[in-house]
Amino acid sequence: MTKTIFKRCLTPLLLMVIGLAGCKQKPQIATKLYDRYQNKAYEDFDTALYHAEFKKQLDSLKDQLHYAKAIDTFYKAQNYEPHFVNISLVNGQIATLVQYLSRAGEHGLDTTSFKPGIIAALLKQVQANRFTSISQVYPVFARLEIETANAMLNYSGVIQFGVVNPHNLYRRYDMQPRRADSAFFKTVFSTPDIAVYLHDIQPQNPMYLALKKALAGISTDVVDSDKLRRILLLKLNMERLRWQIPPKEDRYIFVNIPTFNLQWVENGKSMINMRVCVGEPKLPGYDEQLKHYLQTRKLDDKPLNHETTILSSHITTIQLNPTWSIPSSIAQSETYYNIQKNPHYLSDNNIRVFKNDREINPDTVNWAKIARDKMPFSFKQDASDQNALGKFKFIFDNEAGIYLHDTNNHAGFLKPWRAISHGCVRVQDPLLLAQQLMNDTTRMDGIRMEVGLKPNNPANNDKYAKIQLARSADGFQLKSKFIDIPKPVQLFIDYYTCLPDENGTPQFYYDVYKLDQPLEKAMGKYLVKVPH
Fold first, then answer.
1. pLDDT tens for residues 382-393?
2. Other residues' Cβ atoms within 10 Å of the Cβ of residue 264
3. C-alpha neighbours within 13 Å on the C-beta side of residue 405
4. CATH assignment, 243-525
5. What is the per-residue pLDDT across 108-138, written as a single tens digit (0 to 9) for each?
6. Domain residue ranges of the chain, discontinuous segments joined by +
């Protein structure tokens, strides 16, 4: 009796299990593909076989992928399931990607670097719908998935962050541009709409758009060396504008090294322009000399590098009547020799001497016996009319230790070539710059009197007269004063050899520090080839 009941219960259960096994649920991708193409081959889609083919192709293509590690990590985490093919094939989104890749030349980029032809050919195979067996499907869809992922990462990374990491290219680059990171990879792989994503990441910087428009307007039917050069400069500086440096605030100061110029910009408009002097370029053969110095470690073999550092920061403080702590590089290369030539050089220029942070009398030193490379002294130039920093020093945080400042020698501003400083930036009109930074007429009158200028408000004339009388007394020593800026102002010291003017017309500038050629080399295959 019991056995009979058990058999009667077991038989339907076995039939149910067998039935469930025979009715295994088809993967989502198979249903989508069959609904779209009505090809019965897709009904045989086997996830395990597709995974095996995907892993095989991923392994064979790794050396050709721009972000191979990120791609491998993503698909491994989701057990090699199709992603872009699943969400973006049937609705035409992968075809939209091909369109964007094919227009990369508008950005001065070589279209073939993003392989739109390969993806287009794979899409053509899918659209032809001639698969007669599922075994023909797996290789095409695995390759399409991998190439789409690679193109999405490569194209969107270049468009948003540039081809080149400037930190790997330039010695003196202290900005922190954003590069492709885990957040970027997550965004690309999680985007639900490729078309919207690619539209939204297109550069919107007005300067970039002006250069892009200019590049599109240059005919390459007939080219000469001058036109080729202009095309190259447009492309190189579009790349620089793709580097995601800190976003610009409503007001900022912009120093472009190749133009020897400073701009005060508010709400996208240049309000003030003034000339600046920037650091001297390295001498030819610098790299070879540096290698030699690193071998010998002899000071006489050390090449000088006074190039101004590319950076971003905020000006927070103005030092009035600044003192100048002379850098050891200048002390060894200039001050040392000036002392040897002129015994009165230090006193004539209000320079004090320190040893172990204690002031000493320079007359007690036998300078002829001091070795330049072992000089145990530091030097400080007191505030005065002879001070190399003039009356104003504009201070901002930076690792290079540079600043904007006035000068006691304004002749350099009259010259067209103004790469003449030791690395800091000399400004033509420091009083006007201070006025903009302070934005306070009352406090500016106090600043004017501190630096020996008559106040604008006649009510302060008596105070000014007393200050001047005190300064004329014997033994008077001018003192520095630090003024905090009410609202720190953003500063960019950058490097562009081509930028649009106010009318959007590209202006081309001399490559002061010879930075174009290494950028061109680093961009390599990504630069559009112009027919000769």
1. 999 899 999 999
2. 19
3. 24
4. 2.40.440.10
5. 999 999 999 999 999 999 999 999 999 999 9
6. 2-200, 243-525
